[in-house]
Structures are given as C-alpha cells and as structure tokens.
Amino acid sequence: MPAEAVTGSVLSSFEDPDGASPTLADVAGKVDGAALLSISGLEKRYGSRPALLGVSATLGIGLTGLLGPNGAGKSTLIRCLAGIQTWDAGEIRVSNRPLEKAGRRQVGYMPETTAFPKELRVDAFLRFACVAKGIKGDWRAEVERKAEAA
User: Fold this and answer.
1) Binning pLDDT at 50, 70 and 90, where does residue 23 land?
2) 36 and 97 in contact (C-beta within 8 Å)?
3) Residue 147 burial by Cβ neighbours in a 10 Å radius (0-12, 13-18, 19+)
4) CA dihedral 40, 55, 14, 113 (to 10 degrees)
5) Which of 17, 19, 63, 128 has its CA 20 to 30 A from that of 134?
6) What is the pLDDT of residues 122-141, one digit of tens each?
7) Residue 31, C-beta contacts closer than 8 angstroms, at least 6 positions apart
8) CA 113 to CA 125: how far, in whole Å?
9) Strand locations in the chain (E)
C-alpha cells in the first residue's frame, strides 16, 4: 500500500472552550495578530512521490502535536520547519518573517537518531553546531554561556 502524503492540513495549538474548532484567524488573533509559526501551502515531493501537498498551519503559544501514519510526511514537515530540508512550494514563517530570514537560532531540532562519525571530536561537533546556528566569533564563550544558562 503506498504511503499517504500530508494534504491540506490545518494544525492549531489552540482549543475553543466550547469545543468548536478555531479558524486560522482565531489562532492568529490570540498571539497579537502574528503567529509564532505559520505554514502556507507547503509542498514537497521526492521525485514523483508526494510527501507534503498544500500543508497550511498557524501555530502560536502552546503545545502542538503532529500525528499521522507511517509515511504521512511528519518527518519531512519537521525537517522543513527546522530549515534542514528544502521544499518545492509554499512558505514557512517564524514570527512573521520567512524562515530563511528568521534564522536557525529561533528554531531547534533534535532528531530521533544521530549519525555522527565515531572519529568526530567534541570540539569539532561544537564548531559544526555553531556554524549551523549562525554563532560567530568566540563560539566557545557563546557555547559556555548558553550551557550555563540552561
């Protein structure tokens, strides 16, 4: 059986006290008119196989779950949101700025499994992580400051 693609979904991190599903306008209005994360018409194909077809979502403050069967496009969507996967059409905005301009510092991603080479030293990994997150200059001091603040 072929995997189904995520299609035309609308996700929301808000619930109406009356049990009614909120509209996108309702959700955006609860975060001062600008969503923390918005996805509009996102599409991604692997060759001729669709993974995401017209995915749209507006997310604000709160907890959001992403559920679906295997092969539905959940991981593809998360990789797109983290900025580590390209997409074919649509737009992702973080704090009302395009993901490309919002910067990776505002988005975190922890994959389920990692595949680092065994010979990769800690300092090389930290240097890689700093480049990926756009941390420049004295990256060691920045890493130490972030670690102490956590």
Assistant:
1) very low
2) no
3) exposed
4) -110
5) 63
6) 878 877 777 777 777 777 77
7) 60, 61
8) 16
9) 6-7, 10-11, 37-46, 49-59, 89-94, 97-98
